[in-house]
Amino acid sequence: MSVRRLKIPFLETDDVQEIGKLGQLIDGLKAVAIDCNPWPAYQADAKANFLMAHNGDAILLKYIVAERYIAANEVTNGNIHNDSCVELFIAFDNDGYYNLEFNCLGFTKIGYGYDRSDRKLLPVDVIKQLSFSSKINANSIINSNGGFDWEIMLVIPRAIFIEHEITSFNNLKAKGNFYKCGDGLPQPHFLTWNMIEAEQPDFHRKDFFGELEFV
């Protein structure tokens, strides 16, 4: 199975602080599709793309989603995967990895550990260093039966990754995967950027992470 590779461009953002303008800045990048469905038993009217860059000190990440159903019932460090959810799993070395999960209202869960059963949730005050802006539109472009389009723009500072001393994202190499899910929705779905080979839905498969290179 081929491994996907992503080069994450550097953007100079010194003159831009407002998150909406940061979102406009990365809109010029090419969108990347989260278009693998490793578990075809789960079919849903859901599409997801992301745009990603960095400014040395933070990851700039925007998800653009269209789906039939939407839900946002969870709170910080709750079961975000049950909501309309997008995720980034990222590893900076051969040890543990971070799972960053966001629902459509921006509520966030971040954990760190070595596998699915070995997770430690990050403190809420650390998670609050992350900034976001989200918007939801009804009447999706998916089909004439309606639905929702939503997007979330995230600024993820290097201080979020408390198990590592990241001085800069410049020239950093990492591994990771991007996901769209909604375990608790009427149409549960589990979409991935890099393909996963597993019998049941399982995003905690570091052995199927793609390669990320911060330019």
Report on this model:
The structure is a single chain. The two termini are 25 Å apart. β7 (108-115) and β8 (118-121) form a beta hairpin. The strands form 2 sheets. Strands 1, 5, 6, 7, 8, 11, 12 and 13 form an 8-stranded mixed beta sheet that branches. A 5-stranded antiparallel beta sheet has the order 2-3-4-10-9, with helices on one face. The model has no long low-confidence stretch (mean pLDDT 95). The protein is globular. The protein is built from 2 helices and 13 strands. Helices cover 6% and strands 40% of the residues. The longest helix is centred in the N-terminal third of the chain and has 8 residues, at 19-26.
Summarize the structure.
With 215 residues, the protein is mainly β. 6% of the residues lie in helices and 40% in strands.
